Amino acid sequence: MFDAVSASADIGLTLEEFAPLLTKAAVEIRLRMDAVRRGMAEGDLRAVALNSHTMKSVAATLGAEAARRAAFDLECCAKGGDPARSPELFAELELRAGELLAELDRA
C-alpha cells in the first residue's frame, strides 16, 4: 500500500511539496501502462522492458514497493525474452499499478 505521508517524509519533503510529484507520477504511470499494454499486444518485448523500467523508477521514487517489484519483474522477463511468463507478470503489474493509481488519486 502507498502512503503519501511516509513517502514524502522519506525523501525529505512536506506533503504539500510532494503533492505535485504525485500528480505527475500518476500521469506518467498511466502513459507507461498504456505503452506496456501496446507492447504486450504487439509482442514487442523491447517496448515492454523500456516502459516497465520507467514505471519501476517512478514507483521507487514514490516508495511504492509492490508496484516497483512488479515493474522490475516484468522488465527482467521482457529483457530476457521470455514471452511465456510475460502475461502473468503483466497481470501483476496491472494489479499493482491500479492499486497505486487509486492511492495517488486519493492523495
UniProtKB/TrEMBL annotation:
Residues 14-107 form the HPt domain. The modification Phosphohistidine is found at residue 53. Keywords: Phosphoprotein. InterPro entries: HPT_dom_sf (IPR036641), Sig_transdc_His_kin_Hpt_dom (IPR008207). It comes from the Bacteria. This is Hpt domain-containing protein. The keyword tRNA processing does not apply.
